[in-house]
Design goal:
The protein has 286 residues and is mainly alpha-helical. It has helices at 2-42, 44-61, 64-79, 89-107, 113-130, 141-158, 165-187, 191-209, 215-232, 253-264, 268-285. The chain folds into two domains: 44-136 and 251-268, no CATH class; 139-232. The protein is built from eleven helices and no strands. The longest helix is centred in the N-terminal third of the chain and has 41 residues, at 2-42.
Amino acid sequence: MFKLELSVRNLRRVLAIAAIIALLEIWTCGQAAAASGTASRQNPVQQFRLAAESLYRSVSAGDPLVVLRKVREAEAALAVIPPDALPSAESASALTGSMERMRRAIVALSPDEQEVYRAAAALRLAADTVSPDGQGLWLEYRRLMREEAASLGESLGTSRVKSDPDARRKLDSLAGHYGLIRAAAAASGRTTAVERADAVFRYAERVLASPQAEDELLAQLPQQLRETVEGLFPPETETPASGPLHAAPPASFFTTIGAFILTALTYSGWRKYRGEHSRRDLNKRT
């Protein structure tokens, strides 16, 4: 009898301790959820960054219906950002323009898969730029574009043909990367540099496309492009508008950057899903 009473008392103690632990866990989770909800309501810029990242991932996955839903979510997140929450007065215009580019790419009668990817990548870079928790992703393009501008200059210096295909290819690559970071640069407040870059790239296109281009114009072009690339980015000693890069990024950070750039320039997943979607529609009609 004594052993039975002891066992009952011990069981009650265990149950009481378990109940206390369960209540503490519920309270802790409630506090964390409340703090998270408060932080989300107080930080619409962060909400937009997360929406842009989710949109980019959905484009990489290649399901058009999911992409359309994510576009609407990103638009809704952008619409509630107050102007004073952004780094500069130009940020709102840059984000709106990037969002409009994404919308045009996705609702076109014949969507260009490559443009869909690039528009999503550009939006993600711009959203990361204005977020206080951003990683400064667009700044990673500085070295790449420097190298491309230098390589283009070498091609122009050694080419004996004014409309050299190799120089043209290198300019297209440099201009493509500029298209990715353009909105991010403008969102960071560097609108003057963006306007100059727009003009220089248009000028470079015309010069390389013209077989009658003067040698003097071709000789000046490499320096103009190098200066344009340098002007797009803040000085390396200057703190970017979105906050400094992590001093010690995780081991996967640079791998993620490389995958991000590569995925932005490929579109096999999107094409595959579109092809499957078209075949399903055709089977239904037949």
